[in-house]
């Protein structure tokens, strides 16, 4: 995928003028800031938009498929279109009280690309995550079970991701190679003990078995990329979720696993009590289902750590380091390596549960 020059204020103004939307007639863009992470396949921009007789307001503009290929190397053929399907579907309206998405989200086509324009919820997303707020997030995350329970056919939508826990399983081979290369790298040879390295190899080898077990667990609508960067609690305690590129169907407990897996790496403070979080989530989802789903949620939670979490860290995560990521930024490199080590050891701690 070739890199493209990001649209300027005039280009975005012209795009808004081509489609009626909640931004109102006569909208023009005053300024644009690039928020793209470089990991996704969309250009993400924050635009200050003004209309006649109204004060400027901040909006997020996403242009799907505008991004670049990265080491994540997604094999998901719908990744650059799924979020447009999500906002164009009935799913946002079926989310129960306690879950929210960015207001005024509008999807339209312009010059061959799908554009999503929505209100900026930066104020909600910039909160600091703590163990207490993570507990609230665990309870709210269980609410994603509700849409599929209310409308079972919803989970059969062809655009939903079906095996998000295996989304990066094609990195298993690279994970084995990276683990084998640690001993010859002075910078990485102490990352894991020989026993830990052996256990990680075994977990990578278990990918197919774990995926088979995950398919047998009770299913729920999943966000698919529910990390602290993609979530925030609003003043009412509702969980606001952005970036629905991986929206899909997955085992109960999976979304909580992704949140915990990247909690520290994405700015969370304090140590999480993972069993307590799992109990809160499991109890909440069991109440919604009218059946005890706590054992299934524990297995889905462990599966997230042992598939999604391990495959990302040992595959593209370690590959990036071995290719020179943050070579001239010791603090950033140390933080990246700390996440790889702590995330992998956290996954190993849940191996017995799986």
Report what the structure shows.
The chain has 13 helices and ten strands. It is an alpha+beta fold. It has two domains: 9-120, Phosphorylase Kinase, domain 1 (2-Layer Sandwich), CATH 3.30.200; 127-349, Alpha-Beta Complex (Aminoglycoside 3'-phosphotransferase, Chain: A, domain 2). Strands 1-2-3-6-5 form a five-stranded antiparallel beta sheet, sandwiched between helices. A three-stranded mixed beta sheet has the order 4-9-8, with helices on one face. A two-stranded antiparallel sheet has the order 7-10. A hairpin with a 5-residue loop joins strand 8 and strand 9 (239-241). Helix 12 packs antiparallel against helix 13. The longest helix is centred in the C-terminal third of the chain and has 29 residues, at 294-322. The radius of gyration is 21 Å and the shape is globular. The model has no long low-confidence stretch (mean pLDDT 94).
At the first level of CATH, the class of the largest domain is Alpha Beta
CATH topology-level name of the largest domain: Aminoglycoside 3'-phosphotransferase, Chain: A, domain 2
If you compute it from the alpha carbons, what radius of gyration comes out, rounded to the nearest whole angstrom?
A: 21 Å
Secondary-structure content class: alpha+beta
**How many alpha or pi helices?**
13
């Amino acid at each position: 995928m070739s890199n493209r020059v990001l649209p300027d204020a005039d280009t975005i103004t012209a795009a808004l003028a081509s489609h009626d939307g909640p931004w109102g007639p006569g909208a023009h863009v005053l300024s644009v800031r690039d928020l793209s992470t470089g990991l996704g396949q969309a250009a993400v921009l924050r635009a200050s938009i003004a209309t006649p007789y109204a004060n400027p307001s901040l909006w997020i503009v996403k242009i799907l498929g505008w991004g670049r290929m990265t080491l994540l190397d997604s094999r998901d053929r719908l990744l650059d279109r799924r979020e447009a399907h999500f906002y164009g579907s009935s799913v946002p309206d079926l989310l129960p009280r306690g879950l929210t998405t960015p207001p005024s989200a509008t999807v339209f086509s312009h010059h061959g690309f799908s554009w999503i324009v929505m209100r900026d919820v930066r104020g909600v997303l910039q909160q600091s995550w703590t163990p207490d707020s993570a507990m609230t997030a665990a309870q709210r995350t269980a609410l994603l079970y509700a849409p599929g329970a209310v409308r079972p056919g919803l989970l059969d939508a062809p655009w939903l991701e079906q095996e998000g826990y295996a989304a990066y399983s094609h990195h298993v081979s690279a994970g084995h190679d990276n683990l084998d290369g640690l001993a010859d790298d002075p910078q990485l040879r102490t990352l894991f003990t020989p026993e830990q390295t052996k256990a990680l190899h075994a977990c990578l080898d278990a990918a197919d078995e774990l995926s088979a077990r995950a398919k047998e667990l009770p299913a729920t609508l999943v966000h698919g990329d529910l990390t602290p960067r993609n979530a925030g609690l609003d003043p009412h305690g509702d969980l606001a979720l952005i970036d629905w590129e991986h929206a899909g169907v997955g085992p109960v407990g999976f979304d909580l696993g992704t949140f915990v897996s990247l909690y520290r790496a994405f700015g969370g403070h304090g140590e999480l009590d993972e069993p307590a979080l799992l109990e809160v989530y499991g109890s909440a989802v069991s109440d919604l289902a009218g059946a005890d789903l706590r054992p299934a949620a524990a297995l889905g939670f462990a599966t997230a750590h042992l598939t999604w979490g391990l495959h990302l860290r040992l595959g593209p995560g370690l590959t990036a380091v071995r290719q020179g990521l943050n070579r001239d930024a010791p603090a950033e490199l140390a933080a990246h390596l700390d996440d790889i080590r702590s995330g992998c050891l956290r996954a190993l701690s849940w191996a017995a549960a799986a």
